[in-house]
Amino acid sequence: MTPKQPKDCILQGQELHLDYAGKSVIAGLNIHIPRGRLTVILGTNGCGKSSLLKMLSQVLPPSKGRVVLDGKTLAEMGNKERARQLALLVQKPELPEGIEVQELVSRGRYPHQTLWQQWSPVDERAVANALSATGLTGMARHQVASLSGGQQQRVWLALVLAQQSDVLLLDEPTSFLDIRAQLSVMDFCKALRQQGRTLVLVLHDINQALRYADHLLLMREGRILAQGAPEELISEQLLRDAFDLDARIIRDPEAGCPMLIPRVCQYDHAWDRREGPV
Amino acid sequence: MSVSRFPVWQWGPLTIRAPARGAVKTAVFGTLGVFLALALSLTLGEAGLSPDRLLQAFRGEAEPYEHWLFWQSRLPRALTALGVGVALGVAGAIFQSLSRNPLGSPDIIGINAGASAGAVLWLLLVPGMSVAWGALIGVVTVLLLLIPGMGRNGQLSRSLVLMGVAINALAIALVQFALTLVQREQAQQMLGYLAGSLSHRDWQQVTLIATTLAVALPWLLLLSRRLGLLALGRDTAISLGVPLRTTQLLALVLATVLALGAVLCAGPVAFVALVAPHLARWNGKQLALLRSGLIGALLLLGADTLTLILPGTQRLPVGVLTAMLGGAYLAWILFAELFRQRTPS
């Protein structure tokens, strides 16, 4: 299938290759991220979603190919210049011992600071805004480690917000959260998109992707299988191709968008038969 | 709304964040502590000067012997202890943050062992000249072995401690080998060096350690913000715009320079670099380079003062004392940790 390319792209990966430990993880991938939209990348574990996000943010420089951000090649931009325009929230950031919410969120200001401008009123305001947008103002002095999983994820989102970049790449921002916390993260992302920011999320919950995404990308084994608006893109065949999943697609009674219901498992040991249903 | 925790200070083009209350407290208590430790170190011990004689010597009104004792023996010794302590405390904090390992310190990473091996081999091969050259060569060799550990992706933390253990083993084997080859007097001299000592220090050592600190500390303070970002993990640090490899390389080299300065002034003093960062973090706060340096200084000067007042004809080298105290402290932490895990919560 030849994927339809979105017209106005803020971020593009051109002919991306990634070799990891002598093995080719991604070979010749082209990706286009539409400006001001919420894009969700879906795919099985190990299909290269996280690697792709890291390549798009230069955290893992591609072995071949280039990433273009708003007309500029990412590899040729300065580190801080890049970080001012593009933020990445990794799947498992490391939490330094004993750090307070406000201290952690202020570190997001690093790309805006120089030797002379170590801390300015602008930084101060950006941190305060990030804290209030994530509802953390009252917890600014709390130890991050003492917060719940959902609150900690809000702290990491606040760190990325303080960075004030136009493009945000979020790697599984809802994993390990309870359903209420997952939905508030998704609603928060939607609100950011309505402010005109570009978001790229890696998700595992296909129904959440269908409900929140403007643009959907399905990956399989380091390739892009299909991309487009969820409504037009999703089909039972595509789910079979992308996930080896036998599912029905029905209409979400609440939001009116497509949603999937996995069929009752007809095959005995799924672990022995990754190839697909009988 | 504004968050008043970190008010902004401005001087012309320079704007910085006002230090938090904790930092001010550290500075005040640290300065007081250093003065107290200095006073104790100069007045205690059998050759100690009583406070009034101390003042006389300071004003240059004392008898010639006491004048010499103050200016040429006790004061340089105490200042060397302070400087070496700062260097070890800061170097330990950097190595721990680079290796993300509470055991990362010049003792464990092989820098002290490299200096020892270099010095001992130098004594063996070039008996006439100062062992400092040997120690220098040893430390530079260790640094050159550690740098490739950064790899292409800057995975320094994983390799640093493992590589250090290997280097340590090699260096200690070299030291043992050299010790079997030499005469008894020479072995005595080598063992004296290997323990790490602060006796017979003069202004040469003070100048050396002061220069080392003056060169390395400003750079490290500038780097400390980036080191704080590295603590969020490699990927987050890069995505925030930290040049990973440059930062790691600079921090590694500067911490090694500090450890080298310490080793050249006092020999391989054990455990101060390991324990100081732990004590600096005792209240669960962030890694603070200067606080760790301050605690290192107090530890080493305190330990040295202790060697002066302990009874016995033969003075204990300060390195032996820090190793004993540090070992006991580490064992205590581990036991406390184990005990805490045993008790059902």
Automatic annotation (TrEMBL), chain B:
<feature type="transmembrane region" description="Helical">
    <location>
        <begin position="288"/>
        <end position="310"/>
    </location>
</feature>
<feature type="transmembrane region" description="Helical">
    <location>
        <begin position="78"/>
        <end position="98"/>
    </location>
</feature>
<feature type="transmembrane region" description="Helical">
    <location>
        <begin position="119"/>
        <end position="147"/>
    </location>
</feature>
<dbReference type="Pfam" id="PF01032">
    <property type="entry name" value="FecCD"/>
</dbReference>
<dbReference type="InterPro" id="IPR037294">
    <property type="entry name" value="ABC_BtuC-like"/>
</dbReference>
<feature type="transmembrane region" description="Helical">
    <location>
        <begin position="203"/>
        <end position="222"/>
    </location>
</feature>
<keyword id="KW-0812">Transmembrane</keyword>
<feature type="transmembrane region" description="Helical">
    <location>
        <begin position="27"/>
        <end position="45"/>
    </location>
</feature>
<keyword id="KW-0472">Membrane</keyword>
<feature type="transmembrane region" description="Helical">
    <location>
        <begin position="316"/>
        <end position="339"/>
    </location>
</feature>
<feature type="transmembrane region" description="Helical">
    <location>
        <begin position="249"/>
        <end position="276"/>
    </location>
</feature>
<feature type="transmembrane region" description="Helical">
    <location>
        <begin position="159"/>
        <end position="182"/>
    </location>
</feature>
<keyword id="KW-0813">Transport</keyword>
<comment type="similarity">
    <text>Belongs to the binding-protein-dependent transport system permease family. FecCD subfamily.</text>
</comment>
<keyword id="KW-1003">Cell membrane</keyword>
<dbReference type="InterPro" id="IPR000522">
    <property type="entry name" value="ABC_transptr_permease_BtuC"/>
</dbReference>
<protein>
    <submittedName>
        <fullName>Iron chelate uptake ABC transporter family permease subunit</fullName>
    </submittedName>
</protein>
<keyword id="KW-1133">Transmembrane helix</keyword>
